[in-house]
Amino acid sequence: MRYKQKVLPPAPGTFANESELAAFVLAKMDQWFHIEEQVQGRYWTGEQTRIDAVLKPRDPDPWFDKDPAFGVEFKNLAPNSSVSDRYGWVAQAVGYTHCEWEGYGRLGIFLCPSPLSPILARVEDIPVERQRRISPDMLEEERQRVREYGRRFGKEYSVEYVEREALLAHKRRLGELTYEDFTARADGYTDADARQRELDLRVAIELTHLLGQLNVGELMPYEGDGWMLTRSGDRLWSERRGASRIPYSLRPRIGSQRR
Fold first, then answer.
1. CA-closest candidate to residue 245, choices 64, 67, 70, 108
2. What is the mean pLDDT of residues 19-47?
3. What sign has the CA pseudo-torsion 188, 192, 195, 197?
4. Three-class SS of residue 175?
5. Angle between the 179-186 and 192-213 helix axes, to the nearest 10 degrees?
6. Residue 221: is the preceding peptide bond cis (ω within 30°)?
7. What pLDDT score does 111 carry?
8. What's the pLDDT band for 247 if we cut at 50, 70, 90?
9. CA distance 132 to 125
10. 191-199 contact pairs (CB < 8 A, 24+)
């Protein structure tokens, strides 16, 4: 599955606004795609709208479609963006898949960055948090605790004593199992962090397949592949490897149609 490959979403706050994010990404895409920005469209209800950009491959031969094209909608996610903000954006993208775009007809829509970025970022943060617990800073906290304990009773412990007691306490802390860790091990995980990481990945996988069924994909950078176009977890194109050559149309599919 795609999320087993490390995703590199932009950290919230990297770009000042949505226009800055779009300019950065489209400048990267320009070497592989013809780009038309602010394309006008019309919903089936007759209401007008517009999308941030429509991209067409400069070399269409490797693509499944005879005239490949797709829409991209950008969102500069705030550090404190809510679930309703992110999935309101998803609802907007789903609506766009039913629009007729001037000069293009109906298009598959790709979001940049993924609305699942907060989940993916949390997956990456879990091992970082585990490492923090066993860092030298935590050992120093134990030293301070031992020194403070001695001062309360009017004692000035030697450096050797402080080091020994701090190391013992630190080892006890690392060896202690919380209830969450204990139940996680019973479930076959190494610890509670590993279980939570697996759960977050499963949620991301399920949601990305759901979005794919609604004709919505993602444009995101991945470690080893650079920028990548995906839908339902399938790689359609990447910066390093080009078009995937799988029989997968960029155009919106109808009903449960697979391709």
1. 64
2. 94
3. negative
4. helix
5. 70
6. no
7. 93
8. confident
9. 10
10. 191/130, 193/126, 193/127, 193/129, 193/130, 196/126, 197/123, 197/126, 197/127
Is the Cβ–Cβ distance between 175 and 134 less than 8 Å? Answer: no
Tokens describing residue 19: 């226009």
Q: What is the pTM of this model?
A: 0.70
| Torsion sign (Cα): 109, 111, 116, 121 | positive
Q: CB of 56 within 8 A of CB of 33? A: yes
The pLDDT of residue 67 is 92
Strands 109-112 and 70-74 turn out to be parallel
How many helices and strands in the chain, by DSSP H and E? 7, 9
Which phi-psi region, left, alpha or beta, contains residue 225 (left: φ > 0; alpha: ψ -120 to 50)?
alpha
78 CB neighbour count, 10 Å cutoff: 10
Q: Is 98 exposed, middle or buried (0-12, 13-18, 19+ CB in 10 A)?
A: middle
The pair of structure tokens assigned to 255 is 């009903």
63 pLDDT tier (thresholds 50, 70, 90): very high
Q: Amino acid identity of 231?
A: R
Q: How far apart are CA 119 and CA 197, in angstroms?
A: 10
- DSSP-derived secondary structure for 190-224: SSHHHHHHHHHHHHHHHHHHHHHHTTEEEEEEETT
Amino acid occupying residue 104? Y
